[in-house]
Amino acid sequence: MAQLWGGRFTKETDQLVYNFNASISFDRKLYREDIEGSIAHVTMMAKQKIVTEEEKQVIIDGLKGILTDVENGTLAITEEYEDIHSFVEANLIDRVGEAGKKLHTGRSRNDQVAVDMRLYVRKEVLAVDALLKDLLKTLMKLMEEHIDTYMPGFTHLQKAQPITLALHIGAYFEMFKRDRLRLNDIYERMNYCPLGAGALAGTTYPLDREYTAELLGFYGPTQNSIDSVADRDYIIEFLAALSTIMMHLSRFSEEVIIWNTNEYQFVELDDAYSTGSSIMPQKKNPDIAELVRGKTGRVYGALMSMLTVMKGLPLAYNKDMQEDKELTFDAIDTAKGCLALFNGMVSTMRFRKQVMAKSAKNGFTNATDAADYLVNHGVPFRDAHTIVGRVVLYCIEKQIAIEDMSLEELKSICPIFEADVYDAISLKTCVDKRLTAGAPGREAMEKVIALNKKYLEENE
Which residues are 72's β-sheet partners? Predict the structure, then answer.
């Protein structure tokens, strides 16, 4: 059992205790960050004359050799080591001898793992942001293509008013845009370096924490040594952001699932993003959308677990915090996988425009516009509402749409109706006359698309 401690102890740790305590099975994922942090630490120590330039170079060469060998598969990260820090340091000492024993001067595993996780999470924040950017580009393309694709808008999952597919997809564009803003906020708050905080109270060595932070691309050092090693807020914030992203993906997935049903038939999923049934040959199942919806709970679980882990911890470091890694790694991998697959599914699915338009007509989504027509002809709105309610009831009994009624039928309910009502309640008119900012009318939608394009160009 390769451990970085032991002088205080007179006998070996029980194997079950060792296994329970060890984190190498999952924190091996941090090997790049651990080596990166160690290179910065020893570079700073040489600048401060804590180690010599020769020792620095020997240590850095040894660390780079370990990184190369791990990545090319000639050096395995095995469970004989307690954690990734033990693995790196033990192998370094084996390779470079006495100089390697000086690497850990002026630091603790507490601030070491803190900087490892910050480096890892910072990288993953940018990776998730890039996936969101790709998804937004896909949604932008769909908005441009479907600015005149009419469909029913819904409230309470009931057909409400006619809209365009561009407007509907644009709602998700806004959601994922907000998700990127949240990631940017997290990055700005978390990008400070805890290395040099020691176990909890700093160190007597003359470390230059500003220089270490600069070498690692942080804005500067953290300002409280206790908080440096005890803080996991940035992880909780990231998990919360991932949970919100997954919630948005899940809502969109639910709609894809509904639209894919025989009852709706608004979309046809690409074969590459669907599966069949082992017994029913006619089935084409929206498995990707269903899995995204299901995996949302998995990411939520990581957030709730992490909040629970941290809720009762006294300052400073506690071993409970080791639980942050598996939860965070799994949530990140899950969210990234869902974003990539969802983007592929949405970019390849086909929208059935005629079916969507017919659904808008048959759902009386233009009933409000029929009432507005009467209001514009001098009928009080409350009376107009009642009259159009009778028109809808008539259509339901006859199993027709409002625009399928003859003028005589309309006049039998209200003599105010004239031939121009048909133009007033057409899907095109209903949509295009809605020109307030953010509405589905072509003029308003073109402005939104132009703004969104500018946003994508300015936020690479």
Answer: none
